[in-house]
Specification:
It contains ten helices and no strands. The chain has 282 residues and is mainly α. It has a domain of 61 residues.
């Protein structure tokens, strides 16, 4: 029996590369088959051909199992190489930002604001990690965790832009960028909710429409002269748009419900089958 199992495994394992990991896995599978054969003998089965057939059948699609095993090994190796690449890249980025910081500090008169370079480097590192986690969580279909990452990226970008506009370019009312930040955060999350088929994505869309109109009204009211009085219509537009969207969704839901009921009625009362004359449930 052992020799038969060996010949079978030797044939099947030719589907993957003859690595040390494959050899160890082949040895493990031989032991597993021998143990299973012994279990069947203990249960009273004495036909060796039957035992062999039963053991092999229990392996299922063993060729696919071997291919998956080999792919897993390559993924582990690739993950290690990627981790090393990311680590070296992170160290290089830190050294680059420090070098730029020192050069600007010693050779220009802008030393009082050079701390922005280090802050920008730190923010860039956090943003890179957040982007990687977004992709990772998305592939793993952990959508709740995935949707927590983009707000971090948007917040850091907006904070840094505010620092640049306020301290470097002396732009008045640069704090308005935080109102824009809320719009971008909610809008991007609404897109992700729709892309991931979030249960309450349409409710979130309605909320976004109203928040967008209100914040846009505030921004334009603060920047455009005499906009406050006619501009309040924007808030009303948001409410009307949300109501229209709700009506469309209700109509869509009712149509789907009607189609389902019609299909059920047609199946029960209009579909004819000769077997119904002789078919019983008992």
């Amino acid at each position: 029996m052992k020799e038969r199992f060996k010949r079978y495994l030797e044939t099947e394992f030719r589907a993957i590369a003859p690595t040390l990991a494959a050899m160890e896995y082949r040895q493990q599978m031989l032991k597993q088959l021998m143990d299973r054969a012994q279990e069947l003998r203990i249960k009273g089965i004495d036909d060796e051909d039957l035992i062999y057939s039963m053991c092999i059948e229990e392996l299922g699609d063993f060729r696919s199992t071997l291919v998956a095993f080999e792919e897993k090994e390559h993924k582990v190796e690739n993950a290690k190489r990627k981790g090393l690449f990311i680590g070296v890249g992170a160290v290089g980025a830190v050294l680059l930002f420090v070098l730029v910081y020192l050069l600007v500090s010693f050779f220009t008169r802008a030393w009082a604001l050079t701390w922005l370079i280090l802050v920008g480097g730190a923010f860039a590192g956090v943003i890179a990690v957040a982007c990687l986690l977004t992709v990772k969580f998305g592939k793993a279909k952990k959508f709740v965790a995935m949707r927590l990452m983009p707000p971090v990226v948007i917040a850091l970008v907006c904070v840094y832009l505010f620092l640049l506009l306020q301290l470097v370019f002396k732009v008045e009312m640069s704090w308005l960028i935080f109102l824009v930040m809320v719009i971008v955060m909610l809008g991007f999350d609404t897109l992700l909710a729709d892309a991931t088929n979030f249960k309450f994505r349409y409710v979130e869309l309605g909320v976004f429409m109203e928040v967008f109109c209100v914040l846009l009204y505030v921004i334009l009211g603060l920047t455009v002269p005499d906009f406050w009085h006619p501009g309040w219509v924007l808030c009303l537009v948001g409410i009307i748009a949300s109501v229209i969207m709700a009506l469309i969704l209700i109509k869509k839901y009712n149509n789907a419900k009607d189609n389902k009921e019609k299909e059920k009625i047609n199946k029960k009362y209009k579909k004819e089958d000769e077997s119904y004359y002789t078919m019983w449930k008992d």
